[in-house]
Automatic annotation (TrEMBL), chain A:
One of its GO terms (molecular function) is ribosomal large subunit binding. Residues 133-159 are annotated as: Disordered. It is found in: Mitochondrion. Residues 64-156 form the Prokaryotic-type class I peptide chain release factors domain. GO terms for biological process: rescue of stalled ribosome. The keyword Mitochondrion applies. InterPro entries: Mito_Transl_Release_Factor, Pep_chain_release_fac_I, Pep_chain_release_fac_I_sf. Its main location: mitochondrion. This is Mitochondrial translation release factor in rescue. The keyword Mitochondrion applies. Keywords: Coiled coil, Methylation, Mitochondrion, Protein biosynthesis, Transit peptide. PANTHER family: MITOCHONDRIAL TRANSLATION RELEASE FACTOR IN RESCUE, PROBABLE PEPTIDE CHAIN RELEASE FACTOR C12ORF65. Pfam families: RF-1.
Length: 176, 387
């Protein structure tokens, strides 16, 4: 990431960062999490509140999570720790006590990143839990699914057009 | 290092090895049962988890997940596209997994098997016997709660335990106990250095500031992490191991940080260091020096004992040999009121404190001790005061 983009992230003091809308859309898809990971990894200043920044439409912010209502478990490791041990497990298990929702995150090799991601995912799940279909999470997923369908439809149409053109071209060649 | 450990090192550090696990000619020491009928990623993970468990390999599930994910091009199993979990693997992929897993059966650390690992968001090459950076050393920037109680306030309400045991009881949980953890306070070496730098505002904006010396850079994890977070900083990274110097070079280039790091093959504990330091006074000295008590070296897990350079671990009788060397050199290394940040054994804060008291001519003070994420005293901040 260029230093200019980094500066963009670090400028904001409220924790709400402005992404170009196309990036935000990419972040919504489950495997777009990879891009999300890259962004959060390169700019450690990004807080989990980023999820409150919606795409094109003006979605209301998600229900916030109170750290007091969370319980977290990650591997402490046996033995003396430090140089004397070598642990690779950095899975984070995060529970939202009031709703009982549990999120297990092992998306990255970093405990810290997993903690952040776990909070992001938990925040979305908790919002859906309390807001159901009204949750921006739900709405965005619906919209994303709809757009995907439209893209597929358009792609199919384009393919058929190309086929038709090709047939026309070939038949015109035969004539001459 | 045991003989087969050396062999592996020679094989693994040969040329053209970078990134290539497919062309590997390493043969299994033991024949594995045929994998007929097991062809998806999920099934393979279960299979190898069982194999590892039967052979008493620690972190059986994590190891097999990392290996399978790696072969499929992902850093963790969970981060794989869900479709890949159930898709049949090619025979080449199966073979690759088999070879990597056979190394795990030889207790090779996962980081060496994969040839890479992450440290604070940086992807670094890992090559035996260069020391693998530990998670305790990593930066863990505070996770900010959104609305609710500010993190700083929450920390203040968290009981600060009088004793180590009370701390451990309240903060940590042991896997796989069912005890749930409240909010753990993470304090790590690199983060601490960053906080100090932020507070001291070293000639803000001017290149070369702060100037940091890392003693014992290993893979370059700490140096490169600091460089990537402090855009103006410069680092002098020193190690007495050639493999470490080479690996730090490689990682610096991978991360395009080679212009701001000066990597020197040098044994800081040698006599020459006393007279021949090819650099001027620095703002900060950072180190994760070998600090294991010599008698504890035998108790180390095979992963560590057989594969990592003992010189990167053994700190002598009380684990203090390299620590005291660094401290003794401090007057020559540091600018006035410069700081030293060390990762140490939990028994060292007291030992270092009394050692410093016995050496008043060094004008060094143990300013603070910090705990790692498991609640063990792990980091020291020592500051030089002007005589």
């Amino acid at each position: 990431m260029s230093s200019a983009s980094r500066a963009m992230f670090l400028k904001s003091t409220t924790g709400l960062f402005h992404f170009p809308t196309s990036l935000t859309r990419i972040c919504r898809a489950p495997w777009g999490l990879r891009l999300w990971e890259k962004l959060t990894l390169l700019s450690p200043g990004i807080a989990v509140t980023l999820v409150q920044m919606a795409g094109k439409k003006d979605y209301p912010a998600l229900l916030s999570l109170d750290e007091n209502e969370l319980e977290e478990q990650f591997v402490k490791g046996h033995g003396p720790g430090g140089q004397a041990t070598n642990k690779t497990s950095n899975c984070v298990v995060l529970k939202h006590i009031p709703s009982g929702i549990v999120v297990k995150c092992h998306q990255t090799r970093s405990v810290d990143q997993n903690r952040k991601l776990a909070r992001k995912i938990l925040q979305e799940k908790v919002d859906v839990f309390y807001n159901g279909e009204n949750s921006p999470v739900h709405k965005e997923k619906q919209e994303a699914a709809k757009k995907k369908q439209e893209r597929k439809k358009r792609a199919k149409e384009t393919l058929e057009k190309k086929k038709l053109l090709k047939e026309l071209w070939e038949s015109s060649k035969k004539v001459h | 290092m045991e003989l087969w450990g050396r062999m592996l090192w020679a094989l693994l550090s040969g040329p053209g090895r970078r990134g290539s696990t497919l062309g590997w000619a390493f043969s299994s020491w033991q024949p594995q049962p045929p994998l007929a009928g097991l062809s998806s990623a999920t099934e393979l993970v279960s299979h190898w988890t069982r194999v590892f468990e039967k052979r008493g390999i620690p972190e059986a599930r994590e190891s097999s997940e990392y290996i399978v994910a790696h072969v499929l091009g992902a850093k963790t199993f969970q981060s794989l596209r869900p479709a890949l979990w159930t898709q049949p693997l090619t025979s080449q992929q199966l073979q690759c997994i088999r070879e990597l897993s056979s190394r795990r059966l030889q207790r090779m650390p996962v980081q060496y098997i994969l040839g890479e690992w992450d440290f604070q968001g940086l992807s670094l090459r890992m090559v035996p016997p260069v020391f693998i950076p530990r998670p305790e050393t990593e930066v863990h920037p505070n996770v900010k709660p959104h609305r609710g109680m500010p993190y700083q306030e929450l920390k203040r309400t968290w009981p600060v335990a009088e004793s180590e045991e009370a701390w451990n009881r309240e903060v940590c949980t042991c896997w796989p106990s069912s005890a749930w953890l409240g909010l753990a306070i993470l304090r790590e070496l690199v983060e601490w250095v960053l906080e100090e730098v932020a507070q001291r505002s070293y000639a803000v904006g001017s290149p070369g500031s702060p100037l940091i010396l890392e003693v014992g850079c290993g893979s370059g994890a700490i140096s490169l992490s600091l460089l990537s977070q402090l855009p103006q900083s410069r680092v002098i990274a020193v190690d007495k191991g050639e493999a470490a110097i080479s690996l730090t070079h490689e990682n610096a280039q991978r991360l395009q940080l080679q212009d701001r790091i000066w990597i020197i093959h040098l044994d800081m504990t040698s006599e020459r260091s006393w007279t021949h330091l090819p650099w001027g006074p620095v703002d900060l000295v950072v180190s994760n020096p070998p600090y294991i008590f010599h008698q504890d070296m035998e108790q180390l897990a095979p992963e560590i004992r057989s594969y990592e350079d003992p010189a990167a671990l053994d700190g002598g009788e009380e684990g203090m040999d390299i620590i005291t060397h660094i401290l003794a050199l401090a007057p020559r290394l540091l600018k006035d009121s410069g700081s030293i940040f060390l990762e140490v054994d939990p028994r060292h804060p007291e030992l270092v404190s009394s050692w410093l008291q016995s050496r008043p001519e060094l004008y060094l003070n143990l300013v603070a001790v910090r705990k790692d994420f498991c609640g063990r005293s792990r980091f020291l901040h020592i500051q030089r005061s002007r005589p």
